[in-house]
From TrEMBL:
It comes from Halogranum rubrum. InterPro entries: DUF7504. This is KaiC protein.
Length: 227
């Protein structure tokens, strides 16, 4: 086995490779809002020193907020897709293609996952057109919760959806993360893991949020890292 320095260096190179080629990350573990926000903020990247195009997909608007992160907020840099669910009334949702607080929002009815995937692809395409080609890591997609999809559809259907969206993210060399508010030990995590490049587990230790990475390609598991 290599020493700690070798492991840390290998891990850092793996993360850079994920950023370069595009990646999809499954975020599980702690349900604490401040921990989820800390993870989302890190995964959205620095929008001040570098250009970021951020796409938020809200299914229950619980595990992320469109104001998380830094940098410019506007139609060319930040877009939101709201998926209506039975527990979220359509009257309470923004109208389709509405713009509020500098955010471009679209509403998608929860009929078929194909329509949501199509909407995500369109928004990524709009970013790509505005940027005249996205650079590696420029696109950041935040999917606030997979829980409604898992509860409404069987696993093969959810996997097909994730692979379609994931392939589009990779084609743009973007980085997408998807929150699933369950324990790492929940069987659904391993059932969905094949659609992702890594699983990120969150926890709170001594009052401080931490995260741990499992890289699927190499079976590497990192130590717990402060958020």
């Amino acid at each position: 086995m290599g020493n700690v320095g070798d492991r840390n260096g290998s891990f850092a190179r793996s993360l850079q490779d994920l950023k370069r080629r595009g990646s999809n990350l499954l975020v599980v573990g702690s349900l604490a809002e401040h921990v989820r926000d800390a993870a989302t903020r890190r995964l959205l990247g620095d929008g001040v020193s570098e250009t970021r195009r951020r796409l938020f997909v809200f299914t229950d608007a619980t595990h992320a907020g469109a104001q998380v992160g830094n940098g410019a907020v506007g139609p060319e840099t930040t877009r939101v897709i709201d998926r209506v669910t039975p527990t979220r009334s359509a009257a309470a949702m923004p109208s389709a293609s509405s713009t509020a607080a500098g955010l471009t929002r679209r509403r998608v009815e929860p009929t078929q996952l194909g329509s949501l995937a199509w909407c995500i692809e369109e928004e990524i395409g709009a970013f790509d057109a505005n940027a005249n080609g996205l650079s590696s890591g420029e696109l950041r997609l935040c999917f606030d919760s997979l829980a409604p999809l898992v509860s409404e559809h069987d696993v093969p259907t959810v996997l097909r959806f994730l692979r379609v969206v994931g392939n589009r993210v990779r084609a743009s060399h973007g980085m997408a993360h998807y929150h699933l508010p369950v324990s790492r030990s929940d069987p659904i995590v391993d059932e969905l893991a094949s659609a992702f490049d890594a699983v990120i587990e969150l926890r709170v230790r001594d009052g401080h949020p931490e995260h741990r990475w499992e890289l699927r390609e190499t079976d590497f598991v990192s130590s717990w890292i402060p958020l």
